[in-house]
Amino acid sequence: MYDMLSEFRVSEFDSFVDILRLTSGDPLDTFGEMWYPMFLWSLCSSVFVHTCAALVAIGTLRKHKYGKFFPVLLIVMGVVGPVTSGVACSAAIAFIYRAANMAMPPIHAMVWGIGQTILGAGIGFTRILATL
Asked: Which family does it belong to (predicted)?
């Protein structure tokens, strides 16, 4: 009998730090094992990029009447983006790997997660969406 909950297990990793350290040498083979590290890498890299942008904004807008609150919005967007679109993208990639019956090395989860942040930053800098 097929057990759907066992397909979504994430218990291979002991902690959040183990995922970021890439300590698991075993390939990720269930949907949950693939999705979760990709999502965490996407979230952490996005928060890092948006924190750097917020620090620049603090330095340049510190004397502005309303601009000094802009870094807070940057940090919020650094979390909201991966929680919405990062979850969906990571799930789609994990679904494709799982449907193809492929195992994902932990380093690939890191590349996919950070790649989502790079792609989002690239779209933001090139203003492709403004041309639509």
From this structure: Belongs to the TMEM170 family.
Q: What is the pLDDT of residue 60?
A: 92
Q: Give domain limits for the chain.
A: 27-121
Give tens-digit pLDDT for 75-103.
999 899 889 999 999 999 999 999 999 99
The Cα–Cα gap between 42 and 50 comes to 12
| Nearest-angstrom CA–CA distance, 85 and 103 | 23
